Amino acid sequence: MICCEKCFCDSELIGRIKSLRQYGDCSICGSTEIFIYNSDINTQLIECFDEFLNIYTPIQLLPDNYPKSETFLLKDELFAKWGIFNNLNTSQIYEIITKICKEKYQFTPELFDYPVMIEDSYNLEYLKGHSILRDNSWENFVTALKRHNRFHTNIINLDILKRYCSYIRKPYKKGTLFYRGRISTSKGLICNQMGAPTYENASAGRANAQGIRCLYLANDIKTTIHEVRAGAYEYISVGTFELQEDIIVVNLKSIDKISPFLDGLDYKEHAINKEHLKKINKEMGQAIRKSDSALDYVPTQYISDFIKSIEHNGNSEYAGIEYNSTMNPSGYNLAIFNPDLYKCIDVKTYWIERLNYFEKPI
Fold first, then answer.
1. What residues pair up with 116 in beta bridges, in sequence order?
2. How many Å apart are CA 353 and CA 355, to the nearest integer?
3. Cys staple from 218: which of 189, 223, 275, 353, with CB 3.0 to 4.6 Å?
4. How far apart (Å, rounded) are the C-alpha atoms in residues 259 and 11?
C-alpha cells in the first residue's frame, strides 16, 4: 500500500512521511509526484499507530458490565473524532491502518473488524485523575460556575488543562500588526481613543469579567469590521495596533486539533479529553447575542483567567488567548491580558454601505 502526505492532515505524520524523501504516486488519494509512504518497505509510522491503537479494547474483551451500545468501529472513530486523515472515507482509512499495522492486524483482527471502546472512558477513578472535567460534563461545569461558585470549583482539573495549553503555544514577534474597531462618527477617532476601556468602563467579555481590562483584537480589517456588528450607514474607526515586544499566547482555536502523536502525549488521556477540548474551542467561538446574559461569558472567562494566572519563573507565561472569530469564519481574534503590549499606530474610518444577511430555518 502506498499512501502520501496528502492522505493526512496531522502535522506529525506528514513530517515523518516527508522525512523519508520518497516521491511517487499515491494509491489511496490519487495524488501524483508527492511524498509517499510505502507500507511494504517503510516502518516509520508503525510505532505511531500501534501505540495509539492500543488505547482501544475490542468488544470481546470488555467487562460484561460495560455498555456495549457505546462501542464503535475503529475506522469510524478515526474518521469522525481525530482529524488525522485528510478527506478520506472510512474504507480508505481502514486500508491504511490495516496495511501500516499489518502485524497487529494479523494477531488482533478484532481490533480493526469489530466494535471497540476505550475501556477507561467508563472508569470513574481514571476519569477523576485524567479528565479535564473529571467525571463531569461541560454542562455540569457551566451550572457550577453560574449558580454555585463563580471563582472556585473542583469540577475542572486545572493541571490537565494547563498541560494541554502548553501544546498550543503560539509566539508573536515584536512589530506584528492586529486591528481593533469602534463605532464612531464620520469624523472618526484618534489613536488614543482606540485602546481597551478603562477599569471603570470595562464590561464583561469573552475573556474578561466586568472591571478587568482586556484588549480585543482581530487578525485583519474584514474580521474587525464584522466583530463590531455595526448597522447599515454607521461609521467604524479601525485602529492598527503594533506589538511592542515578543509574546506567547494560547491558541485555543487549535486546542481540539492537537496531534495525538506528539512526543510525551498520553494517547488515552488525550482520547478521553477530546470532546472536552472540542467544547472549549466551540465555546470560545460561540456567537453571543446582545440579548444574552453576561453569565453566558462566565465559563470562557474562567478558562481565560486561569490561563492568565499561569506563571513560569515568577512571570506570566501567556500574554493572551487566540480564538476563532464569531462573526467571520475565516478570521480570528486575540484577547490580550495587558493592553499596553500593543500600541495603536494608525486609524482609518469606514462607512458601512450595506449589510448581507444569511439565514437558516430552526
1. 58, 72
2. 7
3. 223
4. 7
Query: Would the pTM count as exceeding 0.85?
Result: yes
pLDDT in tens, 232-287: 899 999 999 999 999 999 999 999 999 999 998 999 999 999 999 999 999 988 87
Q: Is 336 helix (H, G, I), strand (E, B) or coil?
A: strand
b/e per residue, 176-212, with b = 16+ CB within 10 A?
Answer: bebbbbbebeeebbeeeebbbeeeeebebbbbbbeeb
- Please compute the mean of the pLDDT values over residues 297-302 and round it to a whole number: 94
Closest to 335 measured CA to CA, from 221, 151, 201, 196: 196
Once rounded to an integer, what is the mean pLDDT over residues 158-183?
A: 97
Question: Is 173 in the same domain as 155?
Answer: no
CA angle 79, 84, 90 (to 5 degrees): 25
Q: Which residue reads 481525530 in cell numbers?
A: 82
The rounded distance, in Å, linking the Cα atoms of 309 and 299 is 16
User: Quick one: residue 218, left, alpha or beta (phi over 0 = left, psi -120 to 50 = alpha)?
Assistant: beta
Report the alpha-carbon distance of residue 195 to residue 317 in Å, rounded.
23
Residue range of the domain that includes 45: 2-117
Q: Are both 233 and 105 inside the same structural domain?
A: no
